Structure prediction request, 392 residues.
Amino acid sequence: MDLSTGMQKMSVGQQPVGRGRGVACLTCKGICSGFQPHSWRKACVLCKCSQEDHAPSSDSEDDRKMGRLLTDSRYAHLTTKVKGGDGLRVYKRNRMIITHPVVSRKDPTFNTITYDWAPPGLTQKLAILYMELLPEEKRPVTGTEGALYRRRQLMRQLPVYDQDAAQCHRMSEAEATAMTLFVKSYKQEALGVGEKNGKKSSEEQQESRPTANGTLGDCCKKSPYHCDRCGDLAAEDGPVVYAEQAGYERLWHPTCFVCAECGEALVDLVYFWKDGVLLCGRHYCQRGRPRCAGCDELIFTEDYQRGADGLAWHKDHFCCWECGQSLSTQCSCNLAKSPLKRGQRRPFKDHYCKAVVHCPVSDEIPQALDSHSSTLPFYLRLMVLCDFPLMG
Prediction:
């Protein structure tokens, strides 16, 4: 079996008109005629599913976003300048192609599997083992659900509007300056990503320890290393993941290298280290700044709205989806076909967590949305449908 790795050739073109306008919804399954972006919500005005549910990005867009994230960090070597791109850098995404010979009566043929992303710097044995450890539905094989899952996680975990003020809606100069400082800080202090080869100190070389910075390496057969998340012993000669800022003595199984908040695998091994835990970009940023529940962007002003449920909002985004009226008072929209009787529930499906939230006007306490879903605009829709104001 042959294995070869290479970098996808990058090209920089114009952004798609309307940021994915017309792309089919992955949640509505044909009900939505195509993505029609809201002016400031990260959602479709037709089906009200999120931009992420339509997955409107492309490889080139994702590589530009990753290039922007890694630029001006210690991982800038994982990017490359684009010819004629006016200094723009893009991600040197590592792809992997595995070729299996197929024996037949006729001339030999080959079955080729292409991965949209693979950890760089691995031997053939470790590269294959790493992919086999992942759930089949999450393996980024080109053209499969796994590749789509990776793309959606790139959008979810590393929103472009968490990196670039130009991607945010009507941000003032003071807010843009504050965001620039925030981004610069996390690039220097918290950002980590898997590397092809890391430097070792002389002491580490004597101990034959693997490299750091999220690097994957062989676990020594005689070393009783335990996974920092599950506590189990790392498999002999198996791939393990290290995070530089966590220290060389800590490691993770590939499937345990996940965000401490949402539990999702850290996409492309990009992690943020804060308060002794691994976080994805989204949840790292949310620990530093409030996130607007309406537009999903970080808030860089102290003049914002805080609802009775604890969610944060830009003041001009604290409004009904349908009529735009402020939710400081009860919304005048009457979208419910019939009023709820006391004790009844109105189920509401959260497209990300598949959770059911109970109507807050019932006798039962509503199920609290976790940090993975509380930033979504769908919570606002629930309140509007229940004619229930978000202010206490």
Notes: The first strand starts at residue 2 and ends at 7. Residues 315-392 form one domain. Residues 121 and 196 are 4 Å apart (CA to CA). Residues 1-18, 195-213, 218-223, 334-392 have pLDDT under 50 and may be disordered.
